[in-house]
């Protein structure tokens, strides 16, 4: 196993790994597997109000999942970033205009009242480990702050490149554990 790295080193190493993985056929296949596993997950089946983000290229592509969830009549809430590294969730009606932020992420164009009382939140990240259900994100601390203030069930979709048997990044006191991880591995992964 890879030795412990500092967060900055880990993030740049892991971004490159995810970029390489995104070019392989396994990425798309795992996106589909994760989508169907997510639809069967009890936290998803029980939730009515679900928070999520639109995926970047390195992340699990949940566009198919979003379509299915809408078809099942779930209420979807899209993340919006605010100054002070604060994250809010806004009700996302189908077809509502979106805009791309300076980070390259799509958010609702409209400023409207947040509703952070969600049943479930899909949490993106660079890497996850079932040991402590740990996560490392892109580094803004948005989710750690949000989850310190809002009690919401959290679920992460983890492909084989995001999966680590134990964390190889340093854990910090403010890191929030996930409630569950859905993990897809490849044959030969530990
Ligand atoms: N899909 C998604 N949305 C999210 C997050 C996330 O991790 N993933 N965030 C989690 O906190 C917040 C925004 N934080 C972000 C942190 C880093 C980058 C980022 O690395 N952007 C790339 C450009 C990507 C592109 O252009 O496609 C970059 O700056 O290199 C983006 C958003 C809220 N929305
Ligand atoms: N609850 C909190 N209150 C105040 N600051 C926080 C809190 N949680 C995290 N931070 C700060 O946010 C910064 C980034 O945190 P961290 O490295 O854990 O980000 P991350 O979880 O990987 O990113 P993200 O959640 O945006 O994907 C750190 O400087 C950290 O001190």
UniProtKB/TrEMBL annotation:
**Organism in which the protein naturally occurs:** Lactobacillus delbrueckii subsp. bulgaricus
Task: Report keywords, A-Z.
Answer: ATP-binding, Magnesium, Metal-binding, Nucleotide-binding
Protein family: Belongs to the 5-formyltetrahydrofolate cyclo-ligase family.
Q: Which domain of life is it from?
A: Bacteria
Residues annotated as binding ATP are: 7-11, 135-143
GO terms, molecular function: 5-formyltetrahydrofolate cyclo-ligase activity; ATP binding; metal ion binding
What EC number(s) are associated with this protein in UniProt? 6.3.3.2
GO biological-process terms attached to the record:
folic acid-containing compound biosynthetic process; tetrahydrofolate interconversion
Cofactor needs: Mg(2+)
The record's annotation in PANTHER family points to: 5-FORMYLTETRAHYDROFOLATE CYCLO-LIGASE, ATPASE INHIBITOR/5-FORMYLTETRAHYDROFOLATE CYCLO-LIGASE
Q: Which Pfam families match?
A: 5-FTHF_cyc-lig
Tell me which residues bind substrate.
Answer: 54, 59
Q: Which reaction does it catalyse?
A: (6S)-5-formyl-5,6,7,8-tetrahydrofolate + ATP = (6R)-5,10-methenyltetrahydrofolate + ADP + phosphate
Magnesium in keyword set: yes
What is the protein name stated in its UniProt record? 5-formyltetrahydrofolate cyclo-ligase
